[in-house]
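Marked as duplicate of an earlier ticket. Keeping the data here for the record.
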Amino acid sequence: MKFPVRTAAVSFLAVFSILITLNPLLSGSQKQLPSYYQKIKDLTARIEPEIVAIRRDIHAHPELAFQEYRTAGIVADYFQKLGLEVRTGIGGTGVLGVLKGGLPGPVLAMRGDMDALAITEETDLPFASREKIMVNGKETGLMHACGHDIHTSLLLGVAAVLSQIKNQVPGTILFVAQPAEEWGDGADKMLRDGVFRNYRPEAIFAFHVDDTLKAGYVHYVPGYSGANCDTFFLTIHSEGCHGAAPDQCVDPILVGSQVVLALQAMISREINVHDHTVITVGYFHAGTATNIIPDKAELRATIRSYGDEQRARLKEKITRTIAGICQSHGASYDLNYQFGTPSLYNHPELLKAILPSVERVLGGKDRLIEDRPEMGGEDFSYFAREIPAVMLGLGVVPPHLEKTSVHSPTFIADEQAIGLGIRLMSCLLMDYASQPAGRRVKDFKK
C-alpha cells in the first residue's frame, strides 16, 4: 500500500480544516464582523459610566405620566449636546432626537419611555427614590419600578455612540423619548401630535427590562407578545330593600355574582381554546350592612386578548352576556366598555432580520431566549400598528437574585445590562440600516 504520504496529507488537511472551523481567529469569522462593531464596543465602554450616572439620577427623581418635565429636559439637553436635531413637547412631554448619518440609507427609530409609578420604593440603593406625591388624598412614593429609567438611559447611550460614528451611519436614526407608557396612551399621543411628521421610519425598535433573565440574556417573542388591555365598568341598579324581604327588590349582588361566573363560563365554552383570553373582575363593590340589599353593585374588569378581531368579538359576547343576565332578573344597568392599549405585535420578518445581530453581540444563540406571549400591556403597540416594530426583553436580574419583579417596591436591576443594551441596539441599528433596500422589511402603511 503506497498511500501513507497521501493519507498523512489528507489527515493534516482534515485536522487543519477542523481547527479553522473551530477557531474564529484562524477562520477569520471575527474579520467578517463590520469594523464598527469594535468601535461601538470601545465607545460604549467610554460612555457607560456617564450613562449609568444619568440612570441613577433619573431613578432618584421619578415623574408620573405626562409630568416628566425634568426627565424630558435631561433627554433634550443631552440630545442637543450630541448635535442632534431636537423637538420637544410632543404629545405632552415627549422628545424626539434626529441623527442624520453620513451615508445613504433608511429612516429607523428607537423608543425609550420615561414615566414612573406611584409606588414607594423599598430598596436600599444609594440612589433610591425619596419623591412623594398625593394620590386619592394619601401620600405615596414615586418609583421607576418598571425600568423606564433604564430604557431612557439606553436611548441616550445609543444616541451618544452612533453620533460619534455618524459619518458611518446609513440614513437617519430617530430617538423617541416617550411619556406615559404606564397610562397606556403616551405613544398614541405622540403619534397624534406628529412625532413622525417630518421623518417616517421604516422600522422601530425598543427594549423592555426582563425581570426573569440575568444580564447578558435577551428574550424575544415573534408575533403577538403583549395583549389588548380593555376594560368594562358595570353598575347594576336596584331599588334596594331589607335583607329579610329579598322579594321586594332586585338583588344586585346576586346579579353581579352571576355575571362574574357567566363570564368565566363564556371563556371556556364560547372562545376558541387557541384564542388566548383572560377576563378578570378585579373590583366588585356593593352594600354597607349585613341586612340590607343595596341599591347598586359596581363591577370593573380587565379583558386581555390578542388582535383586533378577538377584542371586537369579546366586546359583543360580554355585552350580550351582561344584558341577558340583567334582563332575566329585571335589573337595569349601565355598562361602559372601553378599548385600551392594543396588543403588541413583533413583526416576524423584522425580528428574523435582526436576530443575527443580537446573537453576534451576545456571543451565542444560547443567550437568546424565545419566549411565549404575555397578557401584559405595552403601549409600544401603537407604534407597531403604524410601522414594523420589534421589542426585545433585556435581562436585568442581579447576580445575587433569582428574579426581580417589575411593578414592585423592591425592584432592582443589574446595571451591567446598560452597556450591553447600548452595544446591542447600536450594532442592530447599524446592521439593519446597512442592508440593501430590497432585503429590508417593507413598511405596511405608506
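See parent ticket for discussion. Residues 65 and 180 are 4 Å apart (CA to CA).
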